[in-house]
Write a structure and sequence with these properties.
six-stranded mixed sheet, Nucleotidyltransferase, domain 5, about 500 residues, about 15% strand, alpha/beta
Length: about 500
């Protein structure tokens, strides 16, 4: 059987076709799009129609690649960027462009939530998560306060992957995983937290789909699309999920002890848990649900390859030259420490922070030291997240690396030494798209047959790449533990004195 996995992100959409007879990806296609230009600082929006156009194009491209084998397609799964706000009117039309996860214009609304409930700690106690600018909840309050006419037209509130599901099936649903990223879901009970909704608007309750199990299908492919694409009847549209939830499935992260770390422009670090993991004191670890009806404690940092790419561009290097420069410099970058907050920071919560090169002298004012300090600095930033997870009882036995930075052998060794556990890449790099296809196979199997457990599907489809595995060197791990403490202390002191 064949299953389509769609990964709709901030910059592009990718579609793959997974053949479960061979467990190979037999087709793939991608299409890119842009943010809406000319908006005020902090406002980041996209037209949902651009996601639809890209999804339709990539599906058509993949189906063309497989030809008559399209008759074997049984299911479609969708991964989407988390937190984005898509609002529909009574006719099912998009009312206004979607405000995205990276939109920070809602900071005043987050402060309003905190005032109303006596601080973010009380909000965490109530629902499990703080209300942060990236989440959907403050976007809804922003819309009510700034565009009341648009707010009054709302019939349904969806997230990006829900909207693609709606286009595919005609059904307006929301599953636990992505719903937890709105900030309005009580992650302990998996039901909407009414007090938070009422603070926005009591009438909003009926406009939010009732959260449902991630193991239930969204529906069946609409007849119009089925005929257009020449697909068989009863193609199942899976529940889908947010990109991190689908990334967890796509990296085999569905059991305790495994952690996934994404080394992209920004960084994410997430784990599987059989119980809610709530950061009651700090709110730095997001207490998300996953898309298997369990939980996904997650840490996000805003600066990973954005920093190394800046260094690479500064010195006119290609990636080989960057890696050689880093490898040629000893751990600790000859005393140079880089606080990598070029885009502010989410963990720790320093949205206005800037980058700092600390410890410059005539010996280390060199390209190699600057390059290594940047690579170490962003990895230490993720290690702060590993430390935060560990404090909440999430202890990784292995960290699976994804994203562009994971292709660097020297970076993988730095990561192992910094994290203190083995790191490994996978033989496939499809990530969230593969997770969406696997979830589609799982849910379609449960819907139409006795079904195969998701763990069995993952065991067949996902394999660590032994050539990429790096073990931590104990001496370097102890060194980096001291460096992490220094970076954390320096960050805190600069922030407390108003310089960061």
């Amino acid at each position: 059987m064949l299953y389509l996995g769609i990964d709709s992100g901030t910059q592009s959409t990718k579609c793959i076709v997974l053949d479960t007879s061979t467990w190979q990806v037999i087709a793939s296609a991608s299409a890119s799009y842009e943010l809406i230009a000319g908006l005020a600082p902090g406002h980041l929006e996209q037209h949902p129609e651009d996601w639809i156009e890209a999804t339709e194009k990539t599906i058509a491209d993949c189906l063309q690649q497989i030809g008559q084998r399209r008759e074997l397609v049984r299911g479609i799964g969708v991964s989407g960027q988390q937190h984005g706000l898509v609002v529909l009117n009574k006719r099912g039309e998009v009312i206004r462009p979607a405000k995205l996860w990276c939109d920070t214009s809602t900071a005043p609304q987050c402060e309003a939530f905190a005032r109303e409930f006596g601080g973010q700690k009380n909000i965490i106690a109530l629902a499990g998560n703080a209300i942060s600018p990236g989440y959907t909840a403050p976007k809804l309050l922003w819309l009510k306060e700034n565009e009341p006419t648009h707010f009054s037209e709302i019939e349904t509130v969806l997230l990006p992957h829900d909207y693609l599901n709606f286009w595919l099936s005609g059904e307006r649903t929301m599953e636990y995983g992505d719903a937890s990223g709105t900030g309005l879901l009580n992650v302990r009970t998996r039901v909407w937290e009414q007090k938070l909704i009422d603070f926005i608007d009591p009438d909003l309750t009926g406009k939010l789909p009732i959260p449902q199990s991630s193991q239930l299908p969204n529906g069946l492919l609409r007849e119009e699309l089925r005929e257009r694409w020449g697909l068989p009847t009863n193609v199942v549209i899976a529940s889908g999920g947010g990109d991190n939830m689908m990334g967890a499935i796509g990296t085999g992260n569905i059991a305790p002890g495994t952690v996934t770390a994404s080394f992209g422009t920004s960084g994410t670090l997430y784990a599987f848990s059989e119980t809610p993991v709530i950061d009651a004191d700090h709110g730095e670890v997001a207490a998300f649900c996953d898309s298997t009806d369990h939980w996904l404690p997650l840490v996000c940092t805003m600066n990973v390859t954005v920093a190394t790419e800046q260094v690479r561009a500064l010195f006119g290097w290609d990636h080989l030259a960057l890696n050689a420069a880093v490898a040629g410099t000893s751990p600790g970058a000859d005393g140079l420490l880089f606080l990598p907050y070029l885009n502010g920071e989410r963990t720790p919560n320093l949205p206005q922070a800037t980058g700092v090169l600390h410890g410059l002298n005539t010996s280390n004012f060199q390209p190699g030291a600057i390059a290594r300090a940047a690579m170490e600095g962003v990895t230490l930033g993720l290690a702060y997240g590993v430390q935060a997870l560990a404090h909440l009882g999430v202890q990784p036995k292995e960290i699976r690396l994804t994203g562009g930075g994971s292709k660097s052998a020297v970076w993988r060794q730095i990561a192992a030494d910094v994290f203190g556990v083995p790191v490994v890449c996978l033989t496939t790099s499809e990530g969230a798209a593969l997770g969406a296809a696997l979830q589609a196979a799982w849910i379609e199997g449960q819907t139409n047959r006795s079904g195969v457990p998701l763990a069995q599907l993952i065991e067949a489809a996902i394999h660590p790449d032994p050539a990429s595995r790096c073990e931590p060197e104990p001496k370097n791990y102890l060194f980096y533990q001291d460096l992490l403490a220094k970076q954390t202390r320096l960050t805190r002191q600069l922030h407390e004195t108003g310089y960061l």
